[in-house]
Amino acid sequence: MTEPGSSRSRPKGAYDVFLSFRGKDTRKNFTDHLYTALLQAGIYTFRDDNELTRGDEISKHLLEAIQESKISIVVFSKGYASSRWCLNELVEILECKKRNTDQILLPIFYDINPSDVREQVGSFAKAFDKHEERFKEKAKQWREALEEAGNLSGWNLNDMADG
Predict the structure, then answer these.
(1) Are 109 and 157 in contact (CB under 8 A)?
(2) Can you give the pLDDT at residue 61?
(3) First vs last Cα of the chain: how many Å apart?
(4) Local structure of 110: helix, strand or coil
(5) What structural domains and CATH numbers belong to the chain?
(6) Which end of the chain is more exposed for a tag (fewer CB within 10 A), N or C?
(7) Contact at 8 Å (CB) between 65 and 10?
(8) Can you give the pLDDT at residue 85?
(9) Choosing from 57, 89, 137, 147, which is the catalytic residue?
(10) pLDDT of amino acid 4
(11) Where is the TIR domain (predicted)?
């Protein structure tokens, strides 16, 4: 029998939740606990480090998971903006939300303020100093996505970095 959250145990398009997070920041604490709690509640959740097998086309598989999920939970953390992968996921999540009004985006602000995301200050500003050198056009798109997501109502979990 396969694990409840595995793509092999559910038909295509059956994810309830797509979980977007910066692995270095939250994988071993908050995100792992959230993922486990969702699975235990019977909520089928896509988490890239758990769902992708060697040889899978990562970008296509992730895009399909985002597009087919009913809800996207984005865990914003201090290192989120340093990951181009996370930023590209966020752009796709917001585009899907616009195309499909039934899709829901739930932001979680983990050990940062929503204003850090919205205004790209602190660690987000440092990340964009690097991004804008190499990815000027993409950086503009990423900034707009962060501003939009930072304006959404979500959960502010300040001072939670220790789990």
Answers:
(1) yes
(2) 81
(3) 31
(4) strand
(5) 17-157 (3.40.50.10140)
(6) N
(7) no
(8) 87
(9) 89
(10) 45
(11) 13-163
